[in-house]
Amino acid sequence: MMRLDRFLCESGFGARSEVKTLLKKGLVTVNGEKAKRPEQKIDENADTVVCRGQKAEYAAFIYIMLYKPAGVISATGDRREKTVVDLLDTEARRGVFPVGRLDKDTEGLLLLTNDGELAHRLLTPRKHVDKTYYAEISGKVTEDHRIQFLKGLDIGEKKLTLPARLEILESKAHSKIRVTVHEGKYHQVKRMFEAVGCRVVYLKRLSMGTLVLDPSLKAGEYRNLTEEEIKSLKELT
Ligand code: URA
Q: Tag placement on the chain: N or C end, fewer CB within 10 Å?
């Protein structure tokens, strides 16, 4: 059993305040009876709820793949800055939060969900979920750096970083690389390059565990995860 307003929010009919208005306007029925009280208890598995003529299909959790653009912060709300949740339509919000953080100037794959348990399992340091980034670097990235990344780097923490796989795509004064890390420390990739005397000038996350950024998404666009993607993330953790 759950409150009718929560049920409607989680079924994608908007935020609490919007749902309240729909109820007040008499646009919601439960088993054919007009329902006006947000606190009315309903059985999400048995009752038929219709809102604006549309049957509400309850989906407890939502999983969104966002191509985070640079310039927005990985938070749910902020008084001054635009957040990743601000990029979503109202129906897509439904209490979602970003799973981990990308820096304001970092682009790429960000998972948003309201499934706290999966988020926790993906973020817990014990699981070492792989994250792969594409980066452009001010400085010549060399084979020697690749070996240092593999051995682990001192980025000012108690322990060295876990072995990271560095793939050099272009080794020039301005280098291009792909790197896979198995942990998620604050500014991790930037600090790893600083530790070898280079500087990250562009950073984009390509994948997290089994989830790969959909190449058809443009910066700022998002889509729901497929059943397959959800299943393999759950299996991974
Ligand atoms: N490493 C960083 O330095 N920044 C990010 O946003 C992600 C990983």
A: N
CA dihedral in degrees (11, 207, 88, 83; nearest 10)? 130
Residue 169 CB: number of other CB atoms within 10 A? 12
Q: Which amino acid, 70?
A: A
Bridge-based pairing state of the strands 165-170 and 199-208: unpaired
Q: What is the mean pLDDT of residues 123-138?
A: 93
Point out the ligand 1 atom lying closest to the alpha carbon of residue 190.
3
SS3 assignment, position 88: coil
Express each pLDDT in 6-42 by its tens digit.
888 777 787 788 899 999 999 999 999 999 999 999 9
Q: What is the pTM assigned to this prediction?
A: 0.80
What the block records as the tokens of 156 is 């000012």
DSSP-H helix ranges across 90-156: 90-93, 116-123, 143-151
End-to-end alpha-carbon separation of the chain, Å?
A: 29
**pLDDT value of position 216:** 98
Band of pLDDT at residue 58, cut at 50, 70 and 90: confident
Phi, psi of 208 (to 5 degrees): -145, 115
Residues labelled as active-site residues: 103
Percent of the chain whose predicted confidence (pLDDT) is above 90: 80
Q: How far apart are CA 62 and CA 142, in angstroms?
A: 42
Distance CA 206, CA 204 (A): 6
Which of 188, 204, 206 most suits a substitution to test ligand 1, by most atoms within 8 Å of the C-beta? 188
Tokens 């100037």 appear where?
A: 105
